[in-house]
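Please describe our next protein:
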Amino acid sequence: MSITLDLSRVSNAPAMKAPVNLSGLTRGGLRQALIDANVCPPEKAKMRASQVWGWIHHYGVTEFSAMSNVAKDMQAKLAEHFTLARPEIVERQVSKDGTRKWLIRTAPGIEIETVYIPDVGRAGALCVSSQVGCTLNCTFCHTGTQKLVRNLTAAEIVAQVQVARDDLDEWPSPKEDRRLSNIVFMGMGEPLYNLDNVADAIDIISDNEGIALSRRRITVSTSGVVPQLDALGTRTAAMLAISLHATNDALRDVLVPLNKKYNLEQLMAGIRAYPGLSNARRVTFEYVMLKGVNDSPEEARALLKLIKGIPAKINLIPFNPWPGVEYECSDWKTIERFAAILNKAGYASPIRTPRGRDILAACGQLKSESEKVRASTLRKAEQAAAGAEAA
């Protein structure tokens, strides 16, 4: 049974039912939706769904009228019941190093950040979000300071890929020379607390007749929701990344508070049992380098002991500071010394080049600025109202 947080906001007012965005439906879901809406008879649903699927996920169309091999009457029925609309892009920023960041509004009050990083993976990686905000409160992570609003739907996850491909001009889906070659679930939120929607999104993104990204180029990063690790591997066959950052429970309890629920012993046991784990499908351990906290040679040797026998690589991440944080980034020589100890033991341990720092798009920096804007606007309105009453 999946652990999926139910964070729907309850309202007593009757709500208008929004049209279903077909972009977030799996093949089976799309086929059933066409039947339920009487768009086509059951015996033709598989074929019609395949046609519609190709237009959505291979060609990237946003209007049913663009589906040239679909009859006009069916186009009209599709438009009556469904939508293909992209979410609103509130802000688009481009870093001096080519990193792109989008602030995307998928619904009123629902905003997420998505980042494209060039020259990562085979060509470029898209860092997608799985939740609005986060519950984990990792003390070094800017995203963790934003309260969790709700899980993202599969359509909202897939929409992040669509927005990036629109901007990169990658429709129809290229077979070669992709600019977006990898997907990493390393944005806002904990993916394993939204596994149902994450799994559906991966099914959609990896389908060979659509966006067609190999599951081996899709990585899901978790802070260690141990009970969901087996389900993640079984349902998605995605590559696994672990947000580790410490080699003992005392320190990890502080840096990654989820460790108090699932400690390192439990986490390592879950990783060793991850479906498909092998030298060809190594787990990636993410380790942020914090000055004087977790960056000593002793910690490097403790890390080797902790992961002994696990097919793995270790990404060393220079800490990306953000306003108000108490941590500092380790000195470069300290990071290199740490990496050398891991390399000598036979582990690949690349030092991640900080990207997009000038637009707050680097690792651990994603956070919607809109909540600050809304709070500021509210305060000004309250102050103005108070002033008017006083007058």
Observations:
- The two ends are 60 Å apart (CA to CA).
- The first helix runs from residue 27 to 36.
